[in-house]
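The methods section describes the discrete structure representation at length, but only in general terms. What matters is that the chain and its backbone geometry are given together, residue for residue. For illustration, here is how one protein appears when written out as sequence plus structure tokens:
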Amino acid sequence: MSRISYKYFSPSIINYKMLRNRELGLKPTLGYSDDIYRKVYSNMDAYLSNIPMQRFTADQGAIFNLEFSLDGKLLVAACEERSVLLFDASDQRQIKKVSEAHCSCVNCVRYVSL
């Protein structure tokens, strides 16, 4: 059986075929995930190149956990050196740092709805 080349079809037809094969439990073709990763990450490179990067000092140590607020506006980071960092998710700006948040490293943070 000959393979059909999809390079001349619209992306919606290719996406439909991919979703249909997934519904049927068929395995993707060899190299398919490489193509997806290339498309996703090449788009991210173009986006990230326009954002001025803010440098952080290493006094918070490694980041063990990230959690978005329930409304998606805030991002909190659990850090190695007993600290918690709070970021504005829309402009990637650090809002607050709690230095002595725990007696040891902070492994996990969660937002709780009351």
Summary: DSSP finds two helices and four strands in the chain.
